[in-house]
């Protein structure tokens, strides 16, 4: 029988206070996992705890910046002590800066790479020894269409997410022998706070031009919702995907496959 259950598993979802991270954590909880999550701001963590609670999920929330090695080591120690060894790590936390490359400061570029690429490295490096000691584990990196494609103003984000795709493949290569599967999820255009500026209704009541552009580029004809990522996340977190390693599972409504509707 194909068993998607995560009963008895401990999942840590970075950036799990809202958006895609919250939806993935909710899905993993629904499959039986115990949920830990982190973000940078106490008020966000506390609100998320209440939001999880309202769904009947007893999550454990922590304030931790994924770019801070000491905070990450402390986070992993707390989760191990309070919930047990981490079986599933979802590297979801991320930011985006939409700035033309030649106008972007080096510090701005570096901040995006720090959070979107080096953060997942720091997190994975912190949990892999425990996964090895317990006979295996699952790492899911939240990549992006920009792991495959460029777009104006997204130099830092595309570089980081392209690197995250290759970090995913390298973790799979280096630790597959320890029964650790590392895969990516590549969301398409998803309606979250991160993409809200791209969907704002214009002063005249019309759709944002980018909104119309994405709808024309997406065979599904809609923006994704965070819950569209639920099933793929449970699949990659569960034993049914134990022979899937180093893959990026795009959840994009078909946008990567499609040249786009003729104007
Ligand atoms: P979001 O709404 O902006 O949420 C980002 C989350 O990450 C928040 O919980 C945020 O909380 C946390 N975070 C940011 N920096 C952090 C840090 N240094 N340490 C710890 N937590 C941090 O983003 P989203 O749209 O849900 O996207 C989540 C992930 O999916 C990101 O990696 C994003 O690149 C990726 N993605 C999004 C889309 C999309 O269309 N929305 C598509 C493809 C991929 P705090 O700010 O309180 O720390
Ligand atoms: C943008 C969007 C995208 C999405 C996502 C697509 O500005 O084009 O923010 O980058 O966030 O990464 O997969």
Description of the structure:
The protein is an alpha/beta fold and 263 residues long. It folds into 2 domains: 10-188 and 225-253, NAD(P)-binding Rossmann-like Domain (Rossmann fold), CATH 3.40.50.720; 196-223, no CATH class. Helix content is 40%, strand content 14%. The protein is built from 7 helices and 7 strands. The protein has helices at residues 19-30, 42-54, 69-82, 106-133, 155-175, 209-217, 230-237, and strands at 10-14, 34-39, 60-63, 88-91, 137-142, 180-187, 248-251. A 7-stranded parallel β-sheet has the order 3-2-1-4-5-6-7, with helices on both faces. Helix 1 (19-30) crosses helix 7, helix 3 runs parallel beside helix 4 (106-133) and helix 4 runs parallel beside helix 5 (155-175). The longest helix is centred in the middle third of the chain and has 28 residues, at 106-133. The protein is globular, with a radius of gyration of 18 Å. The mean pLDDT is 97. It binds NADP nicotinamide-adenine-dinucleotide phosphate and D-gluconic acid (GCO). NADP nicotinamide-adenine-dinucleotide phosphate binds next to helix 1, strand 2 and helix 4.
């Amino acid at each position: 029988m194909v068993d998607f259950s995560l009963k008895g598993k401990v999942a840590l979802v970075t950036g799990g206070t809202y958006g895609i991270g919250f939806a993935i954590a909710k899905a993993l909880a629904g499959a039986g996992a115990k949920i830990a999550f982190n973000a940078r701001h106490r008020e966000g963590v506390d609100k998320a705890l209440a939001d999880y609670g309202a769904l009947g999920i007893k999550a454990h929330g922590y304030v931790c910046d994924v770019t801070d090695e000491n905070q990450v080591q402390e986070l992993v120690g707390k989760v191990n002590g309070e919930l047990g060894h981490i079986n599933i790590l979802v590297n979801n936390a991320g930011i985006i800066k939409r700035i033309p490359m030649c106008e972007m400061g080096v510090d701005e570029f570096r901040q995006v790479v720090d959070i979107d690429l080096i953060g997942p490295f720091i997190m994975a490096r912190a949990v892999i020894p425990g996964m090895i000691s317990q006979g295996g584990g699952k790492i899911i990196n939240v990549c992006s269409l920009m792991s495959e494609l460029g777009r104006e103003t997204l130099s830092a984000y595309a570089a980081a997410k392209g690197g995250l795709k290759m970090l995913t493949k390298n973790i799979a290569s280096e630790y597959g022998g320890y029964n650790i599967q590392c895969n990516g999820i590549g969301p398409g255009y998803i309606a979250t706070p991160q993409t809200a500026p791209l969907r704002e209704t214009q002063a005249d009541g019309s759709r944002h031009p980018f909104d119309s552009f994405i709808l024309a580029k997406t065979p599904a004809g809609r923006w994704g919702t965070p819950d569209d990522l639920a099933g793929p996340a449970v699949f990659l977190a569960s034993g049914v995907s134990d022979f899937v390693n180093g893959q990026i599972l795009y959840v994009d409504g078909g946008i990567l496959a499609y040249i786009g509707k003729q104007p």
